[in-house]
Amino acid sequence: MNSPAAPALVVLGGLPGVGKSTIARALLGQWPAVYLRIDTIEQALRDCGALGGSGVGAAGYVVAYALARTHLSQGLSVLADCVNPWAETRASWHRVALDAQAPMLAVEVVCGDPAEHRRRVEQRVSDVPGLVPPLWEAVCRHDYVPWAADNNQLVVDTAYRSPGEAARHILAALRERTAG
Hints:
Layout: E1 9-13, H1 20-28, E2 34-37, H2 38-48, H3 59-73, E3 78-81, H4 87-99, E4 104-110, H5 114-123, H6 136-141, E5 154-157, H7 163-178
Parallel strand pairs: 1-3, 1-4, 2-3, 4-5
Helix pairs in contact: 1-7, 2-3, 3-4
């Protein structure tokens, strides 16, 4: 599949358990990019004790923004995998892309079947050493503001698309955004 010629930023956002990381793996099989996963960054910060007892807060996102900006400025595409829960985090990713003069595609990943979403959350095993996945109750209480329909983002519903189909859909949208 043809990838965009210029470096680009793709940000996958959505609640835990909707399939962001699964889509990311499928996408990376078709599109060479630096993969920045907030779960991995935040767990590394916890593991090294860099934040003391204060919790992770915004630190993982701040690190990811800096890394994305650096990679984009070096001509490398970036795939960010994060909950991206608020307008502020979404705006920060847009600033990263603007700073690097790179096109950006924001993708809200959802699971339109609540029973399937719950099943995924409850059966999930973390592939990040030390990371304990949230329980369903925590996902339901997550501080997450749904994206505004006019944000010019792509919405991918994993209840109705396989990871491979989602990846192809995202790449097609990215090619369309970066064409000409």
